[in-house]
Amino acid sequence: MPTPRQRSVGAEIQSIRRSLTAIVRALGRLGPAVDAGLRSAAKGAAAPRRKLNLSPARRAQLELQGQYIGHMRMLPSRQQAAVKALRAKKGIRPAIALAKRLGKG
């Protein structure tokens, strides 16, 4: 059986360099492909939302609205109607107070 021919150190280094060069090229092709895949997947997702610049008064209104809706969701429709009527007559703060009382009982 013939013995395998020994390669010189220089030939081994050259072989390693060729392999590393091939890996670098493959990674270079892979990067844009991954970016394209991420972009196409992101098209189905919602666009980034803009930041709302709310005044303190508007933020307070939204907090009250959230409290009102949160309490209203826990009430049956007959009690919701009573709270809505109070809101139309006296405003949101008394309506929230009534909804809280009705929700606990």
Give a description of the structure.
This protein has 105 residues and is mostly helical. Helices cover 75% and strands 0% of the residues. The chain has helices at 9-43, 56-72, 77-90, 92-104.
Helix tally equals: 4
What profile does the largest beta sheet have? none
Strand content range: under 5%
Level of helix content? over 70%
Q: What distance lies between the first and last C-alpha atoms, to the nearest angstrom?
A: 97 Å
Number of strands: 0
Our Rg estimate from Cα atoms comes to 34 Å
Task: Give the overall pLDDT as a whole number.
Answer: 87
Shape: rod-shaped
Q: By helix and strand content, what is the structural category?
A: mainly alpha
Regions with little confidence, pLDDT below 50 for 5+ residues: none
Count of distinct structural domains: 2
Order of helices and strands: HHHH
Question: What's the multimeric state?
Answer: single chain
Brief overview, please?
This protein has 105 residues and is mainly α. Helix content is 75%, strand content 0%. Helix 2 (56-72) packs parallel to helix 4 and helix 3 (77-90) runs antiparallel to helix 4.
Keywords:
rod-shaped; 2 domains; mainly alpha; 105 residues
How is this fold's topology laid out?
Elements lengths: L8 H35 L12 H17 L4 H14 L1 H13 L1
Helix pairs in contact: 2-4, 3-4
